[in-house]
# Entry
Amino acid sequence: MLEGNFWAIKNVRLTLIAPLIVATASVSFAPRAQAAGTVAGSTIANTATANYTDSGGNAQTATSNTANLRVDELLDVAVTSADPGDIPTLPSGVNQVASFTVTNTGNGSEAYGLAVTTALGGDQFDPTATSIVLDTNGNGVYDAGVDTVYAAGTNDPVLAPDASIRVFVLSTIPGTAVNGDRGQLSLAAASRTLTGAPGASANGQGQGGGDAVVGTSGGDGSANGAYVVQAANISFTKTSSVVDPFGGSKIVPGSIVTYTLTATVGGSGSLTNVAIADNVPANTTYVAGTMTLQGASVTDTADADAGVFVPPAGVVPGRIEAALGAVAAGQTRTVTFNVRIN
Amino acid sequence: MRILILLFLMLSPVSGHAADAIALDSSVFVEREVPAAGGKTKTVLEEPKVVIPGDRLVFILQYRNTGTQSAKDFVVTNPMPAPVAYQGTSDTVAQVSVDGGKTFAPLASLKVREADGAERAARPEDVTHVRWVLREPIAAGAQGKLSFRGVVR
# Structure
């Protein structure tokens, strides 16, 4: 009980004070600086020295015994999602990667058991977790065939204090999921030594021979990730307009036909490597230098801009191509070109 | 066995230096909050059984003059164990050092120079040594207790 500046010592037996021989001792232990605290198994050694002058005027020194304490192992772990947001996916997608980080926030080396839960509320589908993979090469990215598949109790990741490991969960998305559906999953990590109420301990189970004590995390932790179905689709339209040599719109030799090709991306998410290609119609000739993309002129040669005209070869009257790259849902790309009727 | 007895005799106080008349005992306890009547908690000191980072420790030094003459200019110095951050003392005669025991003063008047050269007020965790300077001589048979608190880093 502590009241004011008065120490009352309860439930303890103070060591009898015995005269001591003069000895020198010093604190020689230097633990590593750790966010997780002093490493389990470290010894806290406390020694004091008294200096005084005796009745003969001589300087004297007395050194205390060394009071030793062994630091026990605190079992704590933190799990976080390593994905920047929901993971875009498609119906029936396989090996869809969700990333997590497991960090040992305790002060001793500890093995963790990993488990995935997918039956979570508040979403539209349950992904099927097919495997848990450890980022064996430590590059933070799932490498099929390189990173090691996790098997509970066989290759539980062992983490030093403050160390962390990236863990991937591979899932299959149900074919019934539709655009915009979310499916959550949770990765849990649990100390192999002990989990439970904070403060619970296991005698002699800690690193360095001390006890293992459950920390504020309970010795386990989990984090959620989510897949979201982003099914983008694309539609094309092609229209034409004609200007004849006399200012009208008759289709006669010498008339100029302008073709307008429109690609529209719908749904959600985006499509990559979108490209438009259109053959120049038979009995017409492409009018050089008339290709436009989004209203701006593009050259006929294969160069930095998106457009290229592939000249006629044999019976093929030539073809225009436009490489549009990634197009997000809701956006449109328009390409025009002119041909002259032969 | 004979060697052990011999060792014991060599180490026993009987054969100690006659001039060493001061006995100093170092002990450490863990401060814990325990439930008390009326839904309150009280702080008790326990013998350390389980110690984890963040635990609050109380270090107690007991001194006694076991000789027949008084001892004067009595100074006790306690280097901080590295895994422990100083948390203060209620002993008014205590001073601390933040430079490895070169200089001692009350914590509030000490400064620490950062790696970038900037100077800042010393904080409890900067303390490297605790020192008590007793003005009165310790009479033969007299004893006393010194203490300070720390937290396991």
Remarks:
- The longest strand of chain B covers residues 22-35.
